[in-house]
Write a structure and sequence with these properties.
The chain is 28% helix and 20% strand. It is of the alpha/beta class. The protein folds into two domains: 114 residues, Tetrapyrrole methylase, N-terminal domain (Cobalt-precorrin-4 Transmethylase, domain 1); 118 residues, Methyltransferase, Cobalt-precorrin-4 Transmethylase, Domain 2 (2-Layer Sandwich). Strands 3-2-4-1-5 form a five-stranded parallel sheet, sandwiched between helices. Strands 6-7-10-8-9 form a five-stranded mixed sheet. It is elongated. 36% of the residues are buried. This is uroporphyrinogen-III C-methyltransferase. It is an enzyme of class 2 (transferase). GO terms for molecular function: uroporphyrin-III C-methyltransferase activity.
Length: 257
């Protein structure tokens, strides 16, 4: 960890939820924090790592519900940084991947405050915990990470471009846009592309549904899946099933039962 100035703001990613996926650097920062401003999805076990006298201030955002405005969070960061030497902003996933972490960096950049960014495992990497690799040789040439809800409420304009690529598409905050996402794929003749919706990735209550992208709305409604969740679209979703089927066929060909 680099040498700190007197006042320091730690912008820390806590990962998708499982406390054991916390990085060692994040663990150390939390154990030394004087103030922690934490989000809605932060695991309580992670908060227990903080010192007993640490101030824990909730500034969460419930998806599509009540939330603490970003401007208020920025003001709180400045307020606490003026009073304490080690203030920690704790976010789920990674703070710089749809986490507004850099907005908070900008808030303090001219205040003589040292900023330490500590990356976290993003929720989209939780797809691997469900036997879905984000890339695979010969199947996916890359990953598009898109927001399902821009500031004005619209879906990312990059989705039509992503649909036409040979890459895996991961959509954050897109559960209210399932119908629009499905229609975009159908419009480009790719409605049969495999898709998965993963809720609470890495946690005991994790749930998942897989289907064709054209059936996203129906499948999620039948399984009762809502937000928060990530949407993974691409042939990688059905890769494990395809490999299992191929292995079974090979076994039968060599005389297995």
């Amino acid at each position: 960890m680099k040498k700190l100035k007197k006042k320091s703001l730690f912008i820390v990613g806590s990962g998708p939820g499982d406390p054991e996926l916390l990085t060692l650097k994040a663990h150390k920062a939390i154990k030394n924090a004087q103030v922690i401003l934490f989000d809605n999805l932060i695991n309580e076990e992670i908060l227990k790592l903080a010192p007993k006298n640490c101030i824990k201030h909730y500034v969460g955002k419930h998806p599509y519900g009540e939330y603490v405005p970003q401007e208020e969070i920025n003001a709180l960061i400045l307020q606490y940084c003026a009073q304490y030497d080690r203030v920690l902003r704790l976010k789920g996933g990674d703070p710089y991947l749809f986490g507004r972490g850099f907005e908070e960096w900008l808030t303090v950049r001219d205040q003589g405050i040292d900023v330490i960014y500590i990356p976290g495992i993003s929720s989209m990497q939780g797809a691997g915990l469900n036997d879905i690799p984000l890339t695979h040789r010969g199947i996916s040439e890359g990953v598009w990470a898109l927001t399902g809800m821009k500031k004005d409420g619209s879906l990312s304009a990059d989705l039509p471009l992503a649909v036409q690529s040979r890459s895996t598409v991961v959509i954050y905050m897109g559960m209210r846009k399932l119908d629009e996402i499905a229609r975009t794929y159908v419009l480009y003749g790719r409605g049969d592309t495999p898709a998965a919706v993963i809720q609470h990735a890495s946690l005991p209550q994790q749930r998942q549904v897989t289907c064709k992208v054209k059936d996203l709305v129906r499948a999620c409604r039948q399984q009762g899946l809502g937000h928060p969740a990530i949407i993974v679209i691409g042939d990688v979703v059905s890769l494990q099933q395809a490999e299992t089927l191929a292995a079974s066929e090979q076994y039968r060909q060599i005389g297995g039962q």
